[in-house]
Design goal:
The chain is mainly alpha-helical and 354 residues long. It has a domain at 70-298. 69% of the residues lie in helices and 4% in strands. The chain is built from 13 helices and 2 strands, in the order E-H-H-H-H-H-H-H-H-H-H-H-H-H-E. The protein has helices at residues 15-39, 47-57, 59-83, 92-108, 116-142, 146-165, 199-216, 218-228, 230-235, 240-267, 278-288, 296-317, 322-343, and strands at residues 2-9, 344-350. A two-stranded antiparallel ribbon has the order 1-2.
């Protein structure tokens, strides 16, 4: 019989040990994921071709992966900025939708003149920040659960999107619920192959800026401190409420900017499926990257590759799209489990026989 089970934080966890454990966890997660794919009907001999060659080594596959990874980077930044402050932003899709809506409004109503494209991107960031402002204030002032509020506001944003596409923003030239196609001056420039566009540069600049603020500026230190221990940060004189509000608004702005990049860089119009699954992807990527900005592009590239491979596996082997979600869950749970074992020590005291 167990008398007591205690959980102790390890004081001797080195950076090298963390890296080794992280690599081992990735290897275990990869092995489990391959097993799931084989069980789903993918031939063993086709795994390398479908998951590596067609996704990362061919021009078309690489272009699709990079294009898909671009908004994922921004969505993951949105998640990371909030998660490090223990603010569970479950409404990334809603903030992304509002960003896409405002960017589309700037395009359709010809706002901004020659600077219309920068205005579109600025408006998209503003839309995301405004959409997360209410949950942030309710959380900080009244302790209202941000999970509920952000999730409900995502539904509101989606319904508002439907209203606009079937109404004021709808393209009357056909029956599909989309906005008219943007003008050439309202599209992000393409480079390389396929749909790869300058949205990638915008996303990488955002990563660099947030990494600089997080690791080299006083505000970033205060934000990381407040996320770890709010009371200790307040005792040292930090205005934790202001720090958290600014960080959360910045997270919403990143989500909104992702919407602007999608409509201006890839879709060139507003559609019903803008931002689909982006909340889940953003949280998964941020968690796998351990909220480290510089790790987010690498993880985003990997997750985007999985999504691109899933389309091929669905066509050629009848693999369900849900398999990709299962694999993402396996990878996340494996890394979290290994990280827990690295960070904490479980001590079990057995009851002495009488």
């Amino acid at each position: 019989m167990f008398e007591r089970v205690t959980l102790e934080r390890r004081a001797d966890t080195s950076a090298l040990r963390s890296v080794i454990v992280y690599v081992i966890a990735l290897m275990v997660a990869t092995a489990l994921s391959l097993g799931v794919m084989i069980a789903a009907g993918v031939p063993t001999g086709a795994l390398f071709e479908e998951l590596v060659v067609q996704v990362f080594l061919s021009e078309a596959g690489l272009a699709r992966t990079v294009t898909m990874a671009t908004p994922m980077i921004l969505a993951a930044l949105a998640a990371a900025l909030c998660l490090r402050l223990k603010f569970w932003n479950i409404g990334i899709e809603g903030q992304l939708i509002m960003g896409a809506i405002l960017a589309t409004a700037v395009a359709l109503y010809d706002i901004g003149g020659p600077a219309r494209l920068p205005v579109m991107l600025a408006a998209s960031a503003l839309g995301g920040a405004l959409w997360v402002a209410a949950p942030a204030i309710l959380k900080l002032r009244f302790g209202v659960s941000e999970v509920i509020v952000t999730l409900l506001l995502s539904n509101v944003a989606f319904l508002f999107l439907q209203h606009l596409l079937f109404g004021p923003f709808g393209d009357t030239s056909h029956n599909f619920p989309t906005s008219p196609v943007f003008d050439e001056t309202e599209k992000l420039a393409r480079f390389g192959y396929g749909d790869t566009n300058t949205g990638l540069i915008i996303a990488l600049v955002a990563v660099a800026a947030i990494a600089l603020v997080t690791h080299r500026m006083r505000f970033g230190f205060a934000a990381r401190f407040a996320g770890d221990n709010v009371r200790a940060a307040e005792a040292l004189g930090f205005n934790t409420g202001r720090i958290m509000l600014i960080s959360i608004l910045a997270g919403g702005a990143m989500a909104g900017l992702a919407g602007g990049v999608i409509v201006a860089g890839t879709e060139h119009r507003l559609t019903q499926v803008v931002g689909l699954h982006m909340t889940f992807n953003g949280i998964i990527i941020a968690a796998l990257a351990r909220n480290a900005p510089l790790m987010i592009p690498i993880v985003s590239f990997f997750i985007a590759g999985l999504s691109v491979a899933s389309a091929s596996l669905k066509v050629f082997y009848g693999v369900s799209e849900g398999i990709v979600l299962i694999i993402q869950g396996i990878i996340l749970m494996t890394l979290v489990t290994f990280q827990f074992a690295t960070t904490y020590r479980v001590t079990i005291a057995r009851q002495r026989p009488t």
